[in-house]
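F.,

This is the one I mentioned.
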């Protein structure tokens, strides 16, 4: 009997491991990764959105997450630099504009800094990375390296956690507005914009991967890339929880919130 891998849509026939997955089965395998591994299931995420963190812990999250936000356009630039496909470059460059801004329009990084400003963090300190957890920086850079080094279709596939992002953004907006007196609508502009950007980006990447992964091995590598990206997001919350919640071991040089913050 051939080994069966990758989840299949309800009611469909499993695909032997030696055969190319049909597009719907391939997409189902990708989406199954998010159902199992996306970081909306992490305990730190639940504490954050449930109003269970104090202001200092929320500050630590926003400061460390800036490292990831800053890395996103760098990994996108790395992907663009590798391809001779002009149409892919034309589409993908919009992601850089979304994060860095274009012309007079601010981008996602600026909107993230509005959040850290609103939380009372010094902007120069945030952008210097000096207060970030060492593990956060290593985790984030592993994503940049992955996109730079993996086969192009696999690198594109690593962005497909955006398929799962709108639900976490909606939950974050509602939960933080409801539960934290120091959060207002203005500082959550980053997440509101991503409600429309992420689905657009995810659909293009999904269509690209379904078209260009032309062997079963390539399809499986793309599914593994989504797992890798979920691990990147999950690991960032692991180190935040370890440093700022339990056991609360903040490494030397990392941001130390005011213990009286509420």
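My design for it:
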């Amino acid at each position: 009997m051939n080994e069966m891998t990758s989840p299949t849509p309800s009611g469909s026939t499993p695909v032997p491991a030696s055969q190319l997955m049909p597009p719907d089965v391939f997409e189902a395998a990708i989406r199954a990764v998010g159902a199992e591994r996306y970081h909306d299931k992490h305990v730190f995420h639940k504490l954050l959105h449930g109003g269970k963190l104090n202001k200092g812990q929320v500050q630590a999250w926003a400061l460390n997450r800036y490292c990831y936000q800053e890395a996103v356009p760098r990994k996108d630039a790395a992907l663009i630099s590798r391809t001779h496909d002009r149409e892919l470059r034309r589409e993908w460059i919009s992601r850089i504009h979304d994060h860095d801004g274009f012309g007079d329009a601010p981008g996602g990084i600026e909107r993230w800094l509005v959040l850290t400003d609103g939380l009372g963090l010094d902007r120069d300190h945030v952008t210097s990375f000096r207060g970030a957890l060492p593990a956060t920086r290593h985790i984030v850079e592993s994503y940049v390296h992955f996109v730079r080094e993996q086969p192009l279709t696999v690198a594109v596939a690593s962005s497909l956690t955006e398929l799962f992002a709108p639900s976490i953004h909606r939950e974050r907006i509602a939960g933080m507005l409801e539960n934290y007196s120091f959060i207002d609508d203005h500082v959550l502009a980053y997440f509101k914009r991503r409600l429309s950007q992420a689905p657009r980006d995810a659909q293009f990447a999904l269509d690209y991967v379904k078209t260009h992964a032309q062997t079963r091995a390539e399809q499986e590598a793309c599914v593994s890339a989504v797992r890798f990206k979920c691990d990147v997001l999950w690991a960032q919350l692991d180190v935040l929880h370890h440093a700022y919640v339990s056991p609360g071991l903040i490494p030397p040089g990392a941001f130390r919130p005011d213990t009286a913050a509420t």
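The radius of gyration is 19 Å.

Talk soon.
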